[in-house]
Amino acid sequence: MSLARRLLRNRALAAGCAILLVIVLLALFAPWLSPYDPYLQDLTNRTVPPVGYDKGGWAHPLGTDPLGRDYLSRLVYGARISLLIGFSVAVISGLIGTTMGMLAGYFGGKVDMLVSFLVTTRLSMPVILVALATVALVGGSLPVVILVLGLLKWDRFAVVMRSATQQVRALEYVAAAQSAGASTWRILRSEVLPNVLPHLIVIATLEAASAILLEASLSFLGLGVQPPLPSWGLMISEAKAYMFFSFWLIAIPGSALALLIFAINLAGDGLHQWFTPPERA
């Protein structure tokens, strides 16, 4: 079966990747797709409704915010921030958790006990509360949010990679590499990592979606990405005072955020089905 036909048969993966591709393209070509500067304020055009309302028009297809900034432009640029946070947090936490999990699964013994203790300690701390306290002390900004979430989201990587490495370590080709005198680093890099990579990819998609949602929560509470950056969570926070009068100010970024999280989770579920052997599906 060709790769394209196999992808089309996996509807969850195909749908999730299609939606993600559209959002990624919007983020990449934001300077050319945005009709206005997302930071440009026009107080004479505050809270203009989207197209379809009596006072709406194609000059601002999705309307404007309370400061007169074009909502379509801010929405498109906001996709950049959400994708950047999801990708960066997945990379940082993935590097930490994968390293710890592979070392624990391969060496076992005291290394495994130490990693298990660190994972248990991390799981005892609620992510959102620790992130709120840290950002409140250090100060909210895009780099700080990425770093804090990256240092807090590694536990799932460690748990899954530990279990996967323990399974791979017992296989014959690892024993053959050990008998041939290969170094531990070479075995982990060339024999273990390629065989646990499917698990890593699936967990990375789930953690990226979780990081995007956590960033939106922090921004909504005023401790995440700071104005005037067009974060979707910050857009929702700025619009909460107008939710009963101009509900689209919350509905538009909220729908975009929900669609992105849905697409990433759908792609993650599709990847899980893709990498699961038929006899275990």
Question: If you had to describe this structure to a student in words, what would you say it looks like?
Answer:
This protein is an all-alpha fold and 281 residues long. The protein has one domain: MetI-like fold (Orthogonal Bundle). It contains twelve helices and no strands. The protein has helices at 3-9, 11-28, 30-33, 71-107, 109-123, 127-138, 142-152, 155-169, 172-179, 184-220, 232-239, 248-275. Helix 2 crosses helix 12 (248-275). It starts with a helix and ends in a 6-residue tail after the last helix.
Q: What are the secondary-structure elements, in order, as H or E?
A: HHHHHHHHHHHH
Second rung of CATH, namely the architecture:
Orthogonal Bundle
Structural class: mainly alpha
Helix content: over 70%
User: Which CATH C-level class is it?
Assistant: Mainly Alpha
Mean pLDDT comes to 87
Radius of gyration: 22 Å
User: Looking at the structure, what is the overall shape?
Assistant: elongated
Low-pLDDT stretches? none
- N-to-C span: 18 Å
Share in β-strands: under 5%
- Give the domain tally: 1
Number of helices: 12
- The fourth-level CATH homologous superfamily is MetI-like
Which fold name is given in CATH as the topology? MetI-like fold
Got a strand count? 0
